[in-house]
Amino acid sequence: MSKPKHPRTLAETEAQAITRNIRVSPQKLNLVAGLIRNKPASQAVATLTFSKRRIAQQVKKTLESAIANAENNHQLDVDQLVVKTADVGKSIVMRRFHARGRGRSARVEKFFSHLKIVVAERAPEPEAKTEKKAA
């Protein structure tokens, strides 16, 4: 006796990768995730490679995992992958204290985040021909 098979929540042309409990605030992670949304996968990897943000390398690993899942598990064409969504969510908050003057304390909150990247296979769009106007 085993559990019934869980139905697939994504379309047949999509694959995902999830990274949980990343030690960065969701606000900072969302700034990096915004750089890759709706971009071709190869362009998104290049953008993250040369980003100065510390967390960009972790996002790049997650994106590469989603690309590998699409290629190996779902037989999708890597050259036609586009980052469909890059969702950022809140995770746990570690609470610490910081000693202040006159015997008081202040709370220090260290935020964690979740990241979910979904890549989808899209057919290459035909480039629109621009007609040159005679001047």
UniProtKB/TrEMBL annotation:
SUPFAM superfamilies: Ribosomal protein L22. Keywords: Ribonucleoprotein, Ribosomal protein, RNA-binding, rRNA-binding. Gene3D superfamilies: Ribosomal protein L22/L17. It holds the Pfam family Ribosomal_L22. InterPro entries: Ribosomal_uL22, Ribosomal_uL22_bac/chlpt-type, Ribosomal_uL22_bac/org-type, Ribosomal_uL22_CS, Ribosomal_uL22_sf. The globular domain of the protein is located near the polypeptide exit tunnel on the outside of the subunit, while an extended beta-hairpin is found that lines the wall of the exit tunnel in the center of the 70S ribosome. This protein binds specifically to 23S rRNA; its binding is stimulated by other ribosomal proteins, e.g., L4, L17, and L20. It is important during the early stages of 50S assembly. It makes multiple contacts with different domains of the 23S rRNA in the assembled 50S subunit and ribosome. Part of the 50S ribosomal subunit. HAMAP family: Ribosomal_uL22_B. Belongs to the universal ribosomal protein uL22 family. PANTHER family: CHLOROPLAST 50S RIBOSOMAL PROTEIN L22-RELATED, LARGE RIBOSOMAL SUBUNIT PROTEIN UL22M. This is Large ribosomal subunit protein uL22. It comes from Acetobacter conturbans. The gene is rplV.
